[in-house]
Design brief:
Elements: H1 2-7, H2 18-24, H3 26-51, H4 58-69, H5 73-103, H6 122-125, H7 127-144, E1 152-155, E2 158-161, H8 163-170, H9 174-201, H10 210-236
Antiparallel strand pairs: 1-2
Helix pairs in contact: 2-3, 3-5, 3-9, 3-10, 7-9, 9-10
The chain binds protoporphyrin IX containing FE.
């Protein structure tokens, strides 16, 4: 594995445009990873809040989905941007991970900080694992919901997609509830380190407010994880029908 990694061409051997040079530089990677990560976290937060509308009833949820669908070309454009951002984020993440493997293939058996307080944690050490899990999950998730069965229903005299019925149907099945819960825990760990690391990479943090930002990103991760998890469990427990 190590030999294979070393045999790959190094960045210096490749022709480079200024954008590619930025993408390949350590500082460029940090900035791209931070900015794309924060954009994805913003999407996830909005998506989580949108899901909670199902607690208000099927009509509220379907009306929200229909409202988004009515954006038409603008929605397609935003989805395209989202895919681009996700691919950039994944590309940089994998490249940083492989770069670290190349530099130190054996890894550390223990993590000890010298000097300033270390922000190494279970979350920071498992970013590649939780990130890969989320990427696989995303494919299955879109297959299940976005490209899943189209149930029609009536809303204010119009025929619309009954996404609420699909969500309720899916989360009556325990394997989905369990699978989503595991993935959402992974998302929580990923966000816990990612949000903090992103603002730090973008240079927003001065040393004094670092512990506060560290705490806020933990709160954000817990809120998003629990916010997402509430719906599957509420449906499975019969609180949302
Ligand atoms: C209980 C948790 C979740 C539920 C019930 C849920 C539900 C849904 C539904 C119903 C759709 C289809 C929307 C439509 O076609 O209009 C959707 C799309 C999507 N979901 Fe989720 N979701 C959950 C968690 C997540 C998580 C954790 C992520 C990301 C990490 C995510 C990312 C996405 C993306 C990227 C789309 C496509 C959005 C678009 O194309 O406009 N979802 N979700």
């Amino acid at each position: 594995m190590t030999n294979l990694l070393k045999a790959l061409p190094s960045n210096a051997d490749l022709p480079q445009s200024p954008w590619l040079r930025f993408y390949r530089s350590p500082i460029g990677k940090k900035l791209i990873s931070g900015a794309t990560g924060l954009a994805l976290a913003g999407f996830v937060l909005v998506h989580m809040v949108g899901n909670l509308l199902l607690f208000l009833g099927h009509d509220a949820y379907n009306a929200y989905a229909e409202h988004l669908a009515n954006w038409g070309v603008l929605l397609y454009a935003m989805e395209g941007v989202l895919v681009g951002i996700a691919l950039l984020h994944i590309g940089v993440g994998v490249s940083v991970f492989l770069g670290r493997l190349r530099a130190r293939p054996e890894g550390y058996s223990t993590y000890q900080s010298v000097g300033e307080k270390s922000y190494q944690s279970f979350s920071s050490r498992t970013m590649i694992v939780t990130g890969s899990g989320l990427a696989i999950f995303l494919g299955l998730h879109l297959w299940t919901f976005k490209f899943g069965p189209y149930y029609p229903t009536e809303l204010n005299g119009h025929s619309v997609r009954d996404l609420a019925r699909l969500v309720v149907e899916i989360f009556h099945k325990f394997p989905y509830v369990l699978g989503y819960s595991v993935v959402l825990l992974g998302l929580g760990f990923h966000l816990r380190h990612g949000a903090w690391s992103a603002v730090q990479s973008l240079g927003v943090l001065q040393a004094g407010i670092r512990p506060i930002a560290y705490g806020v990103s933990a709160l954000l991760a817990v809120a998003i994880t629990l916010g997402f998890m509430a719906l599957p469990w509420a449906i499975y427990g019969g609180l949302v029908a």
